[in-house]
Design goal:
Blueprint: E1 5-11, E2 15-22, E3 29-32, H1 36-49, E4 52-59, H2 66-84, E5 93-100, E6 103-110, E7 116-120, E8 127-128, E9 131-132, H3 134-147, E10 150-157, H4 161-180
Parallel strand pairs: 3-4, 7-10
Antiparallel strand pairs: 1-2, 2-4, 5-6, 6-10, 8-9
Length: 197
């Protein structure tokens, strides 16, 4: 099977991002975004999905981190789409329910090519460190859009915003890990009755 990896660069007047993604990795990561909590969440994603991820990103975060966070979601989504190629032989669907202390988050997704995101996280604070909590949904929406996936993120229980966010990204990681897995029984077929994703 060919290596499922992608390198994507995105540069605008507001952000500059270089991202490498290997789906069949071991969970290695090197992430530098300038936003500590975002680095932490992306590291959790790599570690628990067993993806190898390298990210170098900078932007106008002294104004507002919104542009950088949203563009990172779009860039990671594009890398995921490129690494999956025609998506032949993949399981396609994945879900996970992950606890972190009092927080419990469910993520369900379909790599079927139809972008959609429904994010229901009930943050109480405006930010976690330097990461505005409202931008977590923007990141996930960008990921779904450019990654061409249907993504549902639902908080089942929570009390601490750090725990909510980390539980969500760990659940996302486990769901993605399941969905990108190759099933030899599919013998390289596209996992759809339409024969195309």
């Amino acid at each position: 099977m060919p290596e499922r990896r992608a390198t994507v660069a995105r540069e605008t007047r507001e952000t500059k991002i270089s991202l490498e993604l290997a789906l069949d990795g071991s969970g290695r990561y090197q992430v530098r975004t300038g936003i500590g909590m975002l680095d932490h969440l992306l590291e959790q994603l790599a570690k628990h999905a067993l993806f190898d991820i390298t990210i170098e990103a900078s932007g106008d975060i002294e104004r507002d981190p919104h542009h950088l966070i949203e563009d990172l979601g779009l860039t990671l989504g594009r890398a995921l789409d490129q690494a999956l190629g025609e998506r032949r032989g993949i399981i396609r669907f994945g879900h996970a329910v992950v606890p972190m202390d009092e927080a419990l988050v469910l993520v369900a997704l379909d790599l079927g090519g139809r972008p959609y995101a429904a994010v229901d996280l009930k943050f109480e604070r405006e930010s976690i460190g330097e990461l505005p909590t409202e931008n977590i949904a923007h990141f996930l929406e960008g990921l779904a859009q450019e990654g061409r996936l249907n993504l549902h993120v639902r908080e089942l229980a929570g009390g601490n915003d750090h725990h909510r966010a980390e539980s969500a990204f760990k659940a996302l990681a486990r769901a993605l890990s399941a969905a990108v897995r190759v099933d030899e029984r599919l013998a390289g077929q596209v996992p759809s009755t339409k024969d195309v994703l």
